[in-house]
Amino acid sequence: MTYPYEIVAHDERDLGYVIGYWLDTLYRAGARELPWSLWKPPAKAMVVRVIDHGRVVVAHNPADRDHLYGFAAEADGALQYVHVRRERRGVGLGAAMVRALGCETYARVCRGDTYARKLGLRAR
């Protein structure tokens, strides 16, 4: 099934979703042995540094800019993170966001290697 979407550069209203989802996923992927209160400050600083020094695009419903379908982030030309809401997966939205960023390589991050290789990206 296809649906309309637009891919645009992120703006301030997107940051709560982008940072929150990114942190939650990283924590669930392997940092649960640490208390959230100790883990979150340095992890958030890392995510914010990537956003500040790289680029983030978001995919959204063209009729409602605040209805996000997903986001992708790059820094230094390497894909850092890509997320598509579960109900919007499987139609190429993640790949479209990666193309919009122009990435050819990816940073080695949790659970991302298989998807990045599927998109033809090289490990950095």
List keywords for this structure.
about 120 residues; Aminopeptidase; single chain; alpha/beta; globular
User: What string gives the helices and strands in order?
Assistant: EHHEEEHEHE
Give the number of domains. 1
Largest sheet: 6 strands, mixed
Identify the CATH homologous superfamily. Answer: Gcn5-related N-acetyltransferase (GNAT)
Low-confidence stretches: none
Distance between the termini: 34 Å
Assigned CATH architecture: 3-Layer(aba) Sandwich
Strand content: 25-35%
CATH class: Alpha Beta
Question: Helical content, roughly?
Answer: 40-55%
Rg estimate, integer Å: 14 Å
Biggest sheet strand order reads 1-2-3-4-5-6
| Outline | globular
Number of helices: 4
How many β strands by DSSP? 6
Structural class determined from secondary elements = alpha/beta
The overall pLDDT average reads 87
CATH level 3 topology: Aminopeptidase
